[in-house]
Amino acid sequence: MRICIFCGSSMGYDEVYRKAAHQVARFFIDNNIGLVYGGANVGLMKILADEMLAENREVIGIMPMKLIRREVAHNGLTRMIHVDSMAERKEKMVELSDGFITLPGGFGTFDELSEILTFNQLRIMDKPLGILNINGYFDKLLEFFDHAVREGFVRKEHRENLIVSDNIYELFVKMNEYKPLTIGKWIKDIVKESHS
């Protein structure tokens, strides 16, 4: 099994984020899970990769050539896949991974999270997506998702399809129980709503 992790190329100011990255890496090691990630040698990404590589575990990085030229690539990975664009990077992550976990990060992490949410909503793929909500980092984003539901722009079932926990063990249990949503009813509902 391989899980893709979206997370920061920064460490964050609070030590709790670094500790959580170590815990996730240890969980992957103990459960024989391969890591797919952005391929960087900086931030939380570096912590995950280094800890897993120290235990001879599989770590696959995927990085656009422009970023590799900026010397942020990790040179010690099991495999580094070079791609031409950020869009191609995400396509490759989807292809290689059995599920996705989002740790704290910045705009790139938010972009990756949003794309997988959309893919699951549209049934472009049926793989679980979890948020490891370390230190309440995603609380405001989750509140906004709830606001979008209340305002009628996100469907309740799609919001609930996003798996959230502050504990990697609990998150993984929930991800293993993931069931894709059917697409037919909500498409009919939005068509009806648009023509009433």
Care to describe what's here?
The radius of gyration is 17 Å and the shape is globular. It contains nine helices and seven strands; from the N terminus they run E-H-E-H-E-H-E-H-E-H-E-H-H-E-H-H. With about 200 residues, it is an alpha/beta fold. The chain has a seven-stranded parallel β-sheet, with helices on both faces. The termini are far apart. The protein is about 50% helix and about 15% strand. It has helices spanning about 15-30, 45-55, 65-70, 85-95, 105-120, 140-150, 155-160, 170-175, 185-195, and strands at about 1-5, 35, 60-65, 80-85, 100, 130, 165. Helix 1 (about 15-30) runs parallel beside helix 2. The longest helix has 16 residues, at about 15-30. The mean pLDDT is about 90. The protein has a single domain (about 1-195), classed as Rossmann fold, CATH 3.40.50.450.
